[in-house]
Design brief:
The protein has 109 residues and is mainly alpha-helical. It is built from 3 helices and 2 strands, in the order ββααα. The chain has one domain (26-108): Metal-sensitive repressor, helix protomer (Methane Monooxygenase Hydroxylase, Chain G, domain 1, Up-down Bundle), CATH 1.20.58. Strands 1-2 form a two-stranded antiparallel sheet.
Amino acid sequence: MKDMQKTDSGQDMCACCHHKNTPRDAKEQRQLQNRINRIIGQLNGIKGMIDDNRYCGDILIQIGAVESALQSLGYVILEDHMHTCVAEEVKKGNEEILTEAVGLIRKLK
């Protein structure tokens, strides 16, 4: 089980969780939420296709579309991470953040 700590509001969060030093603006937040909602809609569509016993090929095409949408979302968040979190830490002299960034890029593949 992961170590838990309390946020300022008293909520539990895992010790490995971080928050951005530079928060996303409202427009950026809304765009990310819209992307997530579209992906959720696509996943619900796939669930419906399976429930409806649709053709495997059609389902696989939709799965590919969801994978592509998730990959695209990941790249948007990675770009933001590089411009904000990583850049801020490098300016502070924390070069270990570069190793973390490379690890995140590898996981995103």
